[in-house]
Design goal:
- By secondary structure, the chain is of the alpha+beta class.
- It is about 40% helix and about 15% strand.
- The strands form 3 sheets. Strands 2-3-1-9-8-10 form a 6-stranded antiparallel β-sheet, covered by helices on one side.
- Strand 2 and strand 3 form a beta hairpin.
- Helix 5 packs across helix 6.
- The longest helix is centred in the last third of the chain and has 24 residues.
């Protein structure tokens, strides 16, 4: 799917010409071009009532009659708030209301909106490079330096486009464009307060997940789904088989025999007799880092999970050949149902007695000393101050669980002084922004949801070349809201793994599977891939690399650091974003050189 949105004004007509193979939707009333691009019929829902028209591009769980009823109540752009907040699924919502245009995506950015101005007319698209081509925008090298960070840039910096002059929407925002082509960003969504009990919240989560899966199955002939053996993906498989009897599950057997994911996946397959199951052995699966070549659809920015890109293509080819058009997977489940130390920090501010009772168990779980526990829980650092502190510590590579606003970003050891200075400057400039929620747990959760959404969006762009959309029901807006609404003391446990999800899936997933307490480890795939392809990686990050020529990395430091001992897989984390940046720059350069003026 790829599209461009034009406002309902005469000056917008000259912005772009509808080329061969592109589809076009027009504004109601004026008949001017509105939405142009490429999408499958199953991804399009459109209804018009008078001079109000609404388009949903993606997976939406809403019938035509209900959508017409909801549109019939719309009198202004603001009235779409209620409609948007009542729909399940993941999609772009594009409205045309009496000459005004509204464009929005999802909270997680699995469906994101980018925008720019062309001759005074505000234009939106689902991909930033679509707009960059129209305005002739170049790469912002300072923003590129942010992509070298090992844990992604914090806050809205993480979603900042790499193309100059192109902007993106932040959490809970939509783009409004008036009839004269003037655009402005409006915030319409905020996280719910954590006030409902676990019993009520579990029902909300269950209902939200059922509708999220229904949105993916209602318009698909066959759906495939990961069956890794983990609780998140397994739950989706059982939810899906309730909606369709034409389920295809996929499982990549881990190379480490001590990883019990394979055992639990086999138990789930036994309990899903009506589904078709495909298992890929290690010698049938692509190696990590085996092939990470990018294509023209990857121009948005560095690919976030480059190490497994060949596996994604392999998966898409296989399920497409077997008739699946949508593939479900469980990303986002860990962050929703198994929060880290920041949970206790926020609990202390909402239910102090409950937090103090849990503090001792938390110390053991996260291996905190008493001073470290007191320091983390008592920390009152504001979000702007925290951003400034991150800016000063970009070269500090210390790893430890903490209760800060987000994961602390680090520059790799091979980043040059210029790269560090550029990233630091952008962090300091961003230190005037406010958090997405006053509760750190909600701010951190939204940060992780947006990371998952970014990965899902970019991965779906890869799988779509094979006719398969990559879907993550856990990061749908309604699912996120349902989890956020649960009281913090009821949301998790120090002694039980993902209690809310387990209770929500009771009666859907067999109790034997819900009893699992372990979690698989895939670091052997990482070590094996790095070891086998190390020389090629070192060569690509050498003196002739684009990053070196831009003065962002020191190739000698790469060669000293990367081949050294890495007893913890986290110390290898900085290699991935650096390699992703270099691969993206090579792709952009090659495609730009080949493209006619």
């Amino acid at each position: 799917m790829e599209f461009l949105v034009l406002p309902d004004c005469p000056d917008a007509a000259h912005v772009v010409v509808c080329s061969g193979g592109m589809r076009r939707l027009d504004h109601p009333g004026s008949g001017r071009p509105w939405v142009m691009g490429r999408w499958a019929d199953s991804d399009l829902t459109i209804e018009t009532v008078g001079d109000v028209s609404v388009v949903l591009l993606g997976c939406a769980s809403v019938g035509a009659e209900r959508l017409r009823c909801l549109i019939g109540r719309v009198r202004s752009v603001e009235d779409l708030d209620r409609l948007s907040g009542s729909l399940a699924g993941a999609f772009h919502l594009i409205g045309s209301i009496r000459g005004n245009t509204r464009v929005q995506g999802t909270v997680s950015t699995s469906h994101q909106v980018f925008h720019t101005q062309i001759d005074g007319v505000t234009v939106a698209a689902d991909r930033p490079h679509t707009l960059a081509r129209l305005v002739g925008a170049g790469i912002d090298e300072d923003v590129l330096a942010l992509h070298l960070l090992s844990l992604r840039a914090p806050g809205n910096l993480a979603g900042r486009p790499l193309w100059r002059g192109v902007e993106s929407l932040d959490v809970g925002e939509y783009l409004r464009v008036d009839p004269d082509g003037t655009g402005r960003v409006v915030r319409w969504w905020a996280p719910p307060a954590p006030e409902v009990s676990r019993d009520t919240g579990v029902k909300m989560v269950r209902e939200a997940l059922i509708h999220a899966v229904e949105a993916r199955t209602s318009q698909a002939n066959r759906v495939s789904a990961d069956l890794s053996g983990g609780l998140d993906s397994t739950s989706l498989c059982f939810l899906t088989t309730q909606r369709t009897r034409d389920l295809l599950t996929t499982h990549y057997t881990p190379m480490d025999a001590t990883n019990d994911d394979a055992t639990w996946a086999e138990r789930a397959r036994t309990a899903l007799p009506h589904a078709r199951h495909v298992v890929f052995k290690p010698d049938e699966s692509p190696e990590w880092y085996g092939d990470y070549t990018l294509g023209e659809g990857d121009l948005e920015g560095p690919y976030p999970v480059l190490r497994t890109r060949s596996t994604v293509e392999h998966l898409a080819r296989q399920v497409s050949a077997l008739g699946a058009s949508r593939h479900l997977q469980g990303s986002g489940g860990d962050e929703l149902f198994h929060p880290g130390p920041v949970w206790l920090h926020s609990l202390l501010r909402t239910r102090p007695l409950a937090a103090l009772r849990l503090a001792h168990g938390a110390r053991s779980l996260w291996r905190w000393t008493l001073p470290n526990t007191v320091r983390n829980l008592a920390d009152q650092t504001t979000y702007p101050h925290w951003l400034n502190r991150c800016a000063t510590r970009l070269t500090d590579s210390t790893w430890s669980p903490a209760a800060g606003w987000e994961n602390v970003p680090h520059m790799p050891a091979w980043a040059t002084g210029d790269a560090v200075s550029a990233a630091r400057r952008l962090l300091v400039d961003a230190a005037t922004t406010q958090p997405w929620s006053r509760l750190r747990i909600h701010h951190e959760l939204l940060s992780m949801m947006r990371l998952n959404g970014h990965i899902n969006r970019r991965t779906s762009q890869v799988t779509s070349r094979f006719g398969v959309s990559y879907e993550a029901p856990y990061i749908d807006d309604r699912v996120i809201e349902a989890v956020m609404a649960i009281r913090l003391e009821d949301r998790t446990s120090l002694t039980e793994y993902k209690p809310v999800l387990k209770q929500a899936m009771r009666g859907i997933v067999p109790d034997e599977i819900l009893a699992r307490r372990s979690k698989g480890d895939y670091s052997p795939h990482l070590y094996s891939g790095i070891r086998r392809h190390q020389q090629r990686i070192l060569g690509e990050l050498g003196p002739d690399s684009h990053l070196a020529r831009l003065g962002l990395i020191d190739p000698d430091a790469v060669r000293r650091t990367l081949p050294s001992m890495h007893p913890d897989a986290r110390t290898l984390a900085p290699a991935d974003p650096t390699l992703a940046c270099e691969t993206w720059l090579r792709t952009v350069t090659a495609l730009t050189d080949r493209r006619p003026a």
